[in-house]
Structure formats: C-alpha cells, structure tokens
Please model this.
Amino acid sequence: MKRAGASVGRRGPDHTGLGALVNPVTPREAPMNRLSGALAVVVLMLATGCSGPAGSPAQGSPHNAINIHLYQKPKRFSPLDPPTGPDQQVMTLIFDNLLTVDDSYAYAPRLAERWEVGEDRITFHLREGLKWSDGMPFTSKDVLFTYRLLADAKSGSAMAGKLAGAAFEAPDDNTFVIRPARSNVGFLSLIAGPFAFILPEHVLGMEPVDRIAGSVFFNHPTVGMGPYTFVTYKTDQYVELAANPHYRKPIAIPRIFLKPISSDVATAQLGTGEMDLVQISPTDLRAVESLKGITVSARPSPGFVRIAVDQSDKRFADPRVRRAMLHAIDREALVAKLLAGRGRVQNSSFVTPWALPGTLEEYAYDPAKARSLLAEVGWKAGEKVTLSWIPGQRDRDVTATVVQGALGAAGMTVELKQVQAAELLESYEKRTFDLALFGGGSYAVDPSSSVTILNCATFYPTGGNISNFCDESLDALTARADARTDRDQRAKLYQEAAGKDNAQVPYLWLYNPDTLWATGPRLRGFKPGGDFTTGFWNADEWTLAG
Model:
C-alpha cells in the first residue's frame, strides 16, 4: 500500500485546470506578485544591512566572484548517485569527463582530446600532462578506476545499467579503451555530458566497492579535474567553489557561489546585481528583458518535462489509463500560456529529430475521451492519486496544479505533495510514489540517450527508468538500431521504436521548454548548453567584465 501524500495544493473553481493557467491557484503567489514581493524583500535587506554568506554580501558579488542560481537544493556530489539537476550542476564545475555535449548538441573534447569509434571499441586519447586539483598526476588509470566503479552495481552506481557487460582497458597512461557489450553506435551519448565524471583513484582507491557510495568524499569532494575546486556547502545557503590552480588553463574568475533559491527571488536578485547567472522562467522573460545590462540566451531543451507513472502499481499498468491522463491535460495551453509559447508539446520519449516518425498520436485535449478510457478500465471514482514534485521552478509549480485540476475533471482525485530531492529519489527506489513530475535529460544528440529511461534493464536506481516500464520488443528494436552504422537504417528502426513508445505512453510527456538563461553585465563568455545540467559546460571560458 502506498503512503498517501499530504495535500499542499487545492483545485480552483475551474476543474479543467485551464483557469489555473490564466490565474494560477498554487501554494505560492501569482507570478508578478511573487516577483514584486521578492524585490520588496531585497529592498528590505538592503535597507537593514542584511548580508549573505561571507564574501558574498547582499549588495552583489564581490569583485572577484560571481553568484549563480541553483534551481533546487543540492543533496551531495557523487557521480555514482542517480542524477539530480542541482548536484550535477555543481559537479560540472568540480569534476570533468572524457567528452561533453556543447551548445550546438555536438560532442566536444574534455579530458580526452580525441577518440575513435570502431566496430567493437571506442579508443580515447587523453590530454597529456594533466594534474588533479591537489597536484597529483592524472592518467588513464583514474579513468579505468572510475569506469569500473560506474559499471559495478555493488558500488551503488546509477550508470551500472548503461555500462553493463562493457570491458575497459588502459593500455598506457594516455589511452583508455571501452569495449561495449554489444555493437552500439550511440554509446558515446551514454557517457557524454554530466554522467560519467572521472574520480581520483589516489583518493578513493582504497575504499571497498560495496561501501564507496557512502564515502564522506562525496559530501566534500575537494579533489577534482574541473575548472573549480570545492570549498564548502552551507546547507540551504550556498556552495562555494574556488578556481582550480592545476586546471589545464588559467581560470579568470577566482570564486563562484551557487545559491539554491526560488526562481522568482533569483530573477529579482538578477535585477539588483546580486545574481550573475539565472535560469529564468518563461513567465519572467518579458520583465527580465527590460532589465538594463541583462543578456538572455535561449535554446530548445534537449530534455523535456514529464510525469512518471508507477507501472509496478496495477492501477496504472493498462496503457489506456496513461492515455486517458494525457487526453485530460491541455498541454497546448500549457505551452501557449504557461511557457508564453517558448516550448513544444512532447509526444515521445525520443527527442532526436531524425529518430521521430512523421506522425505520432498527439493525444489532443479531450476530457470526454479521458473519462471514457478510464471507464473502460474500471477506474474507481474518488480513488486518491498522489502527484509529487520538487517545488521552486515556476512552470512546474503551476503545472502541478493544472494537472491536479485536469485529472480531477476526468475522474481522478489527485493530491499534491511537495518534496525535496532526497525524498523524491527515495520514493522512486521504494516505489512509494504514484505520479512524479520532473524534467531534464540530454536526449538530443542521439536517440540512444533516451533508451535508458525506457529499457527493461535500467529500472531505477540502476538506470533512469523511473516508471518501471518494460517492453522487450522495443528494447530489441533499439538494440538493432544501435548495432547499425548506417544512419538511415538506424533512423528507420528508431522511428518504429518511437511509434511503440508513443502508443504505450510510458511517461506522461508534457512539454519540451526552451531553456532560458539570463546573465548579468559582469559575466562574459557564458554559452548555454540547452539543458540545465549542461549549463556550465564552458565555465573555463568565463570572464568578468572590467
């Protein structure tokens, strides 16, 4: 029996949820009121002389540091853990990986300066002469140590499912070889970006594999290969980082403070000069663009916002239930009104354009059809369903209330439950959630990236399949596609897989939002990576004005 969540939201008089888009009824105030309120708080702080953390005063960043908005509170900083956005944002700055995905969704070199993809192996040629932030030499042995950990389920690694059956070699200090368990052209997409950060063997090598996940190092990861080193995390206040003196090139900004605050407060602080880099909500775009000296960068997200449905619960096992929920939600209105048109409705777990067929079932807004489908499966009217999410991002806070009203109109009684990251992740593992609203992902570079949220072998926590969805015929299609080297052959198979995915609705796909970053006048050189987890991919190029 699942634990019922406490209701922290309420339905407005318009039970379709459309009214909530115009005048949202949430546990928080309406967008402009919230922004005004946040500005009033800032003014009050300035008037009373309140200050932020040491070296980060309320009246703005010190001359040698910047303040960055974290959209949620970090938990800790371990590449072994299931991925969460704020943890990964910090890790992007203190750790590094073999390659990443840049702002044009192309592979970019990091610790590896080049690589070759063969039929049965990928060979990485590492940059020579690199050092860890503590001055110790970096070699392929560190990469070998890391990948063996990531592939070993006993380490608690969330990457174990992706790397299952792969073999790893370090033939010399500057060469690292991966032999995937099967031919997989898309394998690079599984390890690029903020997923396979390299760990220091000289720090962690003596830790027992079955206990390494609990190492205190991941609370204070003071040794890394990224452009910054970890200094401290003042819980709920800020993460402080300092420039890595042993990084492969000079770092121009000596210090960074990353602050977990709500998006409206962060936007207000952007206007007062207290914040230098903020991921903003589309509802704030017009106000932010009017601020003097602020630059807004936009990219279509390589991920999407969705609702995981626990399919280990027999109530949700029939795909007609999930189709009904999609028909109940006016997703076009969410994009048009909540995102101010800065996004697209999503109808598949695949994002890469060439992997999508010309037509997919669009699950248009149709409350009558939603009620009919629920009646077909014998859904019990009045049975409670809990929708969990992490609060603090404007679009998701409002979306939760809209979904509550929409599903209520279709015959589901939905309770809203605000949770923090640790609680949400625990509910995934223990299967104590019903519906979970979340977003993100880096799925644009290759369709293989999406396989890990669908595959029967990648159930959470050993992979990203949070819904516990399983279709072995879909797995077989994607495996055949990744065994091909011809792009057209891969596309045909992936389009067939996308059709299967679309018909079964493993997730309630909501929307693919534009990722909007706003930079203050002091920060130069920022290039958005599209997704929040890759927003700091070029931090080693950032500079301070004047």
